[in-house]
Amino acid sequence: MAKSTRVQSPRHEALAVVLQVRDGKLKVLLWERAREPFLGEWALPGGFLDAGETLERSIRRHLAAKVDVRELSHLEQLETCSDPRRHPTAWVVATAYLGLVPADLDPEVPEDTAWHTVGGLPELAFDHEAIALAGRERLRAKLSYTNIGFALASPSFTISELRALYRAALGHDVSATNLQRVLVRRRLLEPTGEQRPPGRSGGRPAAVFRFRRRELAVTDQFAVLRPPGSHESGTQKAEGDPRGLGNL
Amino acid sequence: MAKSTRVQSPRHEALAVVLQVRDGKLKVLLWERAREPFLGEWALPGGFLDAGETLERSIRRHLAAKVDVRELSHLEQLETCSDPRRHPTAWVVATAYLGLVPADLDPEVPEDTAWHTVGGLPELAFDHEAIALAGRERLRAKLSYTNIGFALASPSFTISELRALYRAALGHDVSATNLQRVLVRRRLLEPTGEQRPPGRSGGRPAAVFRFRRRELAVTDQFAVLRPPGSHESGTQKAEGDPRGLGNL
DNA sequence: GCAAAAGTGTTGTGTCTACACCCATGT
DNA sequence: ACATGGGTGTAGACACAACACTTTTGC
Questions:
Q1: At residue B137, does pLDDT exceed 60?
Q2: Residues of A whose CB is below 8 A from B143
Q3: Distance (Å, rounded) from C-alpha B77 to C-alpha A17?
Q4: Per the confidence metrics, is the pTM higher than 0.70?
Q5: How far is the CA of A235 from the C1' of C14 (A)?
Q6: Among B11, B93, B172, whose Cβ lies nearest the Cβ of A227?
Q7: Could B54 and A223 be called an inter-chain contact, meaning their C-beta atoms sit closer than 8 Å?
Q8: First to last CA, chain B
Q9: Is residue A160 within 8 Å of residue A224, measured between CB atoms?
């Protein structure tokens, strides 16, 4: 029956949940809409997919107008939203990405964009609130079982600084003691050898650390139901161990 | 410059990686293509998105022709593939889903579809091999930290039967002893009270279990970096505990 | 009785939280 | 000196894998 039916396709847009810890809070970059629908409301940045580009390339292109692409320390696909009612007048499918910006950068953003605290967002256009919250959840989960912290942190940092980032992203307090132990045991962090002098109020100088790898890596593989024999002998963290956690 | 440019949109298709354990092996449902491109090669089932439907609804509709929809015990979105070269002659974006079928069912499938072992796939059309493998990885990961086993298993089963499913899906042997302990400790399984009589070769009759919930639930929340105070006293799993692992 | 299959007891290891304590610096 | 922030030592709580052992059946 569909013989002479004209092919109908949705328009496809890429959206980004760009997160950064600023002033001790997890914030998301929002853009104030300049046209209907939802004129004047806040929305996630993004735009339509062009012929010949991938979604990832598309979102990088659209973001380049707002945040310098090179300042994105991590970018991953979140989900694709296809409810036909998500746009009041058009048929638009959206693929959302999660982007992270390290805390030491303060990208220039245009007048009509601003950073908003993820807890306590204003009313957002379309289904963008749900998408923004999904981005936060993804980040929170990955902080537990990957090295994604590298994307929130500057190239080197003290444990206190890192703790503040984890606290802001996770939404609860984090013990500096245990954070250091977990991340060092899993071999995510290594000391640079440098020290940071204390502030005016005194205190012991802090050791400076860096993430060993600055690309996403899963570090808590096989939480349970490991393959047999993967228990092995004790404390194999003998520096250059090939198998084990460090990789994969 | 794009003033009078005609709007271009990709066509959007939904694909499904439908997995089931059959004959002790993890298999994926494939469809033999009846037209170019890739005529005669194996491909994931799916089809184009229609106006007015969501992607999830679309993939359920397309699958209904191959597997009865009601036989899908779980369906979740995997990823969206947008490389413009993924289709040789057209611009097609694909959103892939992971679907699971419980092991006790043997859905009627048409002539041109068949179950293929995921390890040792033939050459697949388009980028479907990568998508199929991504589906398997998602399943493997979720077997460790969610109750997704319910979607592979029949409504009730013995530990040995469940073990065979986990072994097939994970690709390595699984100890029945520890599988039972982990799943009971996490309160995923409960005994039905029934027993299964042994086979001709004797043996103790097996207790029959069921999954307590048959929708996806995360059971290993907060692998690490838990909020402070979540240690609490011993074994707080006192049925109706509000906080903690069971939910969210 | 004996083999087969299911299930329990127990031990050892590793990882995590929590908290006490020691260290290095500024005033 | 002593307050302040950084870092280590250590103990307790689980969760897990591995393996020995007991239970219940068929032959």
A1: yes
A2: 225
A3: 19
A4: yes
A5: 8
A6: B172
A7: no
A8: 48
A9: no
Residue A27: both structure tokens together: 């914030």
Measure in Å the smallest separation between the Cα of B181 and chain A Cα atoms: 11
Instruction: Provide the 10 A C-beta neighbour count for residue A57.
Output: 16
**Rounded Cα gap, residues A41 and A200, in angstroms:** 44
Model pLDDT, residue B242: 31
- Residue A224 DSSP symbol: S
**Of the candidates A63, A35, A32, A22, the residue with the CA atom closest to the CA atom of residue A128:** A32
Alpha helices in B97-201 (DSSP H): 128-145, 159-170, 176-185
CA of A208 to C1' of C23 (A): 17
Tell me if A49 sits within 8 A of A58, measured CB to CB: yes
User: What is the distance in angstroms between the CA of the first residue and the CA of the last residue of chain A?
Assistant: 50
pLDDT: is B117 or B111 the higher one? B117
Task: Evaluate whether A14 touches A58 at the Cβ level (below 8 Å).
Answer: yes
Residue B126 in tokens: 């388009």
CB–CB of B187/B115 below 8 Å? no
Asked if A228's CB is within 8 angstroms of B182's CB, the reply is no
Give CA–CA dist A154/A157, Å, rounded.
7
